[in-house]
Specification:
Oligomer: single chain
Strand order of the largest sheet: 2-1-6
Length: 141
C-alpha cells in the first residue's frame, strides 16, 4: 500500500480522485490516522451536498461520524491505479536487491523511481510527472 505521506503529496500536487467502490482512504487529524477505510456499496458511499461530495458511512450506528467531505480524506491509490496512471509511459517494474525500480519513459527520458514497495515506486513516478508536467492528464479509467 502507498504511504500516507506520498498519498498526501500526490493530492497536493493535483492528482484528482473520482471515488469508486474498492478505493481506500484515511481520515487525517481526527485520531483515525492509522485506520484505512474502503469505499463499499454496502457501508460507505458517495453523495453530493451543497458543500461538495460527501463520503457517507451507512449503517455504522456506533460511530459519531456518519459522513465526511471528500476533501477531508486522503485517497490511497492502489498499485494498479498508480500503474494505470503511468499508462504507456511505464516500461518495467524491476527488483534490485531489497528495492523495486519503476522504470518509465517521460518524453524520451528513461527515469527510475525506487522504493521497497511497488506502490510507492509507482507513486513517486506519478508525483514526478504531476510536479514537472501538470498539463499532462493523468487519470484512472
Amino acid at each position: 500500500m502507498i504511504s500516507i505521506e506520498l498519498a498526501r503529496s500526490l493530492r497536493d500536487a493535483g492528482l484528482s480522485w473520482a471515488p469508486a467502490s474498492g478505493d481506500q482512504f484515511v481520515i487525517p487529524d481526527r485520531g483515525l490516522d492509522g485506520q484505512v477505510f474502503a469505499i463499499s456499496e454496502m457501508t460507505i458511499d458517495i453523495r453530493s451536498s451543497p458543500g461538495g461530495k460527501v463520503i457517507a458511512f451507512n449503517g455504522t450506528v456506533e460511530w459519531a461520524l456518519d459522513a465526511i467531505l471528500q476533501r477531508e480524506v486522503v485517497w490511497l491509490p492502489s498499485e494498479g491505479q498508480l500503474r494505470e496512471l503511468l499508462g504507456e509511459r511505464f516500461i518495467a517494474l524491476e527488483r534490485d536487491g531489497d528495492v523495486l525500480r519503476c522504470v518509465v519513459d517521460f518524453d524520451g527520458h528513461r527515469m527510475e523511481y525506487r522504493d521497497a514497495a511497488a506502490a510507492n515506486a509507482y507513486g513517486r513516478a506519478v508525483l514526478h510527472r504531476l510536479l514537472h508536467d501538470p498539463a499532462d492528464p493523468l487519470q484512472v479509467q
